[in-house]
Amino acid sequence: MVTKAVIPVAGLGTRVLPASKSIPKEMLPVVDKPAIQLVIEEAIEAGIKEIILVTRSGKEAIENHFDKHYELEAELERKGSSKAAILDSVRNILPADVRICAVRQPDAKGLGHAIHCAAPFVGEEPFAVLLPDVLVDCRDTETHDLQRMISTFNQNGCTQVMVEKVAQEDISKYGIADCKYSPEAGNSCKVNGFIEKPDPAIAPSDLAVVGRYVFPARIMSLLADTQPGAGGEIQLTDAMDELRHEQSMQVYRMSGLTFDCGNKAGYVEAVLHYALRHPETKDATRKLINNLSD
Ligand code: G1P
Question: Where in 140-179 does DSSP place strands (E)?
């Protein structure tokens, strides 16, 4: 059973500077929640009970956000029922049965290295990986994508890699899957490999890796032996390639929506999308959009 998730949050956030100079990019607000909270809620909805953040110095705000804030809670409590809803939103960020811990990535040696830093906490269990730049919203679909990936892994034991179709001009921004056909949304199919950020002219498909994975524990021992690859960094894609030679691997085609908050336009789109769903902001946001488009 997959109950653990690794979330690497040690990145420098260079694509959203200067906003991310002194606060972690994962803490940038999407309406009234930091982006990382939406990612952790997605993991919890999928049944995850233990979350391992891979972090670095200067990113303590993320851990603090999921910790108890005694003074704030006491103050809100003292103010009584008028602040009850806010108190609830601060106090119950994590359900009681979910644990969160943080481990440091001492050197910026790449995504593969970051995930491997969580190995002592993952042990011999399968686990999910969620890259926090991308927000996944499945609220309008029948399927919760990460939950579906986990249940498919539980049934067939195959690594699951979430993908979505992207436009030609975006192909060079993502890992691209090499598979014989494109599965229907909500389904998985065998993948023959991935090419990291290819030139669209040689890309094997238009199915891009979104940043959600379900791995067997074996990936950790492969990562331990992975040599620096592209950019001199230990690449997750290289360890996945090794794993694919040992066991069958599948891509899962998502049915929800994605927002790439790792770049400025994607972040603005995410804020608008979530503002249109939030009961307190939806009407004003709709009005604003209508006025702007007039
Ligand atoms: C990483 C992965 C890439 C994936 C992307 C999704 O790249 O290496 O395969 O498509 O995340 O956001 P990064 O964006 O960290 O360069």
Answer: 159-165, 175-178
How many A from CA of 210 to the centre of ligand 1?
A: 7
List the domain boundaries for the chain: 4-293
Tell the residue nearest (CA) to atom 11 of ligand 1. Answer: 211
Residue nearest to atom 2 of ligand 1 (CA): 175
Q: Could you say which architecture CATH assigns to the domain 4-293?
A: Alpha-Beta Complex (3.90)
Measured from the CB, is residue 133 less than 6 Å from ligand 1? yes
**Which residues of the chain have a pLDDT value below 70?**
none
Give the tens place of pLDDT for each residue, 120-130: 999 999 999 99
159, 197, 209, 254: which to mutate for ligand 1, most atoms within 8 A of CB?
A: 209
Nearest CA to ligand 1 atom 3: 175
Say whether pTM exceeds 0.90: yes
